[in-house]
């Protein structure tokens, strides 16, 4: 039995190490050609990519039958957080008299620039506890707010 275990261990070691390759020397660098080439644009940082994607999000929404502010703010392309509906309500006070009564065909502005305090106040107003006033990391937030909350890009 010991021989079988030792043979198994030896086979595992051989397969783990594998066959060694002969290392070939690196080829000599090609001579530099004095030719004008366009420089490739610098790669974007994760924050810049996030800001570009955030800028593509819609800034308005047209209500369809069955919608409510809670559901509208829950859509991934809007805020991806239902507790942020007071932001839409506040931005559209001229169109919405009662937050419980919105009608198909109404076109609401979706604010994309706001402060962290506005988000926390909106979430508390919507029913979130004060302990959970900060939005989740999955919410669509401006880059400055994500950075202030310590969320990555």
What does this structure look like?
The chain starts with a helix and ends with a helix. The model has no long low-confidence stretch (mean pLDDT 86). The chain has a two-stranded antiparallel ribbon. With 153 residues, it is mainly α. The protein has helices at residues 2-17, 46-55, 69-74, 85-91, 116-125, 143-149, and strands at 60-62, 107-109. It contains six helices and two strands; from the N terminus they run ααβααβαα. The protein is flat. The chain has a domain at 58-149: LysM domain (Membrane-bound Lytic Murein Transglycosylase D, Chain A, Roll).
Brief characterization of the structure:
With 153 residues, the chain is mostly helical. It has helices at 2-17, 46-55, 69-74, 85-91, 116-125, 143-149, and strands at 60-62, 107-109.
């Amino acid at each position: 039995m010991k021989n079988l275990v030792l043979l198994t261990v030896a086979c595992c070691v051989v397969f783990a190490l594998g066959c060694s390759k002969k290392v070939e020397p690196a080829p000599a660098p090609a001579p530099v050609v004095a030719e004008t080439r366009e420089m490739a644009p610098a790669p974007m940082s994760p924050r810049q990519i996030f800001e570009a994607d955030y800028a593509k999000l819609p800034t308005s929404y047209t209500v369809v039958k069955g919608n409510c502010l809670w559901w509208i703010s829950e859509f991934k392309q809007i805020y991806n957080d239902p507790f942020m509906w007071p932001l839409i309500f506040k931005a559209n006070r001229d169109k919405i008299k009662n937050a419980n009564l919105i009608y198909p065909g109404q076109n609401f502005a979706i604010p994309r620039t706001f402060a962290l305090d506005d988000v926390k106040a909106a979430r508390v107003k919507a029913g979130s506890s004060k302990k959970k006033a900060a939005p989740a990391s999955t919410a669509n937030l401006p880059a400055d707010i994500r950075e202030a909350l310590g969320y990555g890009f």
